Amino acid sequence: MKLYDVTAAPNPRRVRVFLAEKGIEVPTVQVDMRRGEHRTPEFLRRNPSGKVPVLELDDGTCIAESVAICRYFEALHPEPPLFGADPVSIGLVDMANRQLEFELLGPVGQAWVNGPVVARLLPDRQQIPAAKEQGERAARAFYRRLNDQLAASRFIAGEAFSVADITALCVIDFAAELVDLRPEDELAELWRWHAEVSSRPSASA
Ligand SMILES: N[C@@H](CCC(=O)N[C@@H](CS)C(=O)NCC(=O)O)C(=O)O
Predict the structure, then answer these.
(1) Which of 18, 52, 105 for a ligand 1 pocket mutation test, highest count of atoms within 8 Å of Cβ?
(2) CATH class of the domain whose range is 2-76
(3) Which CATH number is 87-200's, of 1.10.287.1770, 3.40.190.10, 3.40.1180.10, 1.20.1050.10?
(4) Which position among 43, 87, 153, 155 has the lowest Cβ density within 10 Å, counted as fewest Cβ atoms?
(5) Are 180 and 118 in contact (CB under 8 A)?
(6) Ranges of each domain in the chain
């Protein structure tokens, strides 16, 4: 089994943190995106989306999509449960995780692909400044919403650490470090949560 990975990218980090929380070690293969390794016919056979992460099993089966890979490992190693432990928490974790993907990761991605780093790396790609601003506004509004939610609970989806915390951590760190979208200092509950999840050993995976 091997995990196709890019160290600096947020989605592969979600899987690495998840594996660290489970205490599972999987060898990784670094994909060099600058050299277009994620667009080769060989890689597209593993994931037609041309994106990382991808988990390749020993029989050649390939599972792409961060959440799909995490669900595979949750099924193999149910403890500790990171997708919820009972019907209500399973629903709440999934709700939080999907909202994070659609309403935070999406806008952060929109700001990223229309921002200066991508403009430098991919000069032929059309930049849409209005899309960048729209993504930034949506991300900042979501930060405020998260801050309000975290005033009422220790973690994103309640009192137990879950895959939703992993998604939020990886997206916020990426946004802060590479997209110039650091949450405002005044969001005290968000930063209280961030300090706690960042101090878990898995955060450095
Ligand atoms: N929905 C996918 C998104 C994967 C994704 O966007 N990966 C990025 C790196 S974080 C990528 O491979 N981008 C390459 C590209 O879009 O060309 C997941 O959750 O794994």
Answers:
(1) 52
(2) alpha beta
(3) 1.20.1050.10
(4) 87
(5) no
(6) 2-76, 87-200
Contact 28, 55 (CB under 8 A): no
Instruction: Indicate which atom in ligand 1 lies nearest the CA of residue 12.
Output: 10
Distance CA 75, CA 38 (A): 28
If you take atom 5 of ligand 1, which residue's CA is the nearest one?
Answer: 51
SS3 for 55-114, per residue?
EECCCCCEEECHHHHHHHHHHHCCCCCCCCCCHHHHHHHHHHHHHHHHHHHHHHHHHHHC
* β-bridge partners, 63: 55
Interval 66-125: pLDDT, tens: 999 999 999 999 999 999 999 999 999 999 999 999 999 999 999 999 999 999 988 999
Question: Which of 3, 11, 65, 112 gets mutated to test ligand 1 (max ligand atoms within 8 A of its CB)?
Answer: 11
pTM equals 0.97
| Token duo for residue 179 | 């997209």
- Ligand 1 geometric centre to CA of 20 (Å): 20
Nearest CA to ligand 1 atom 14: 51
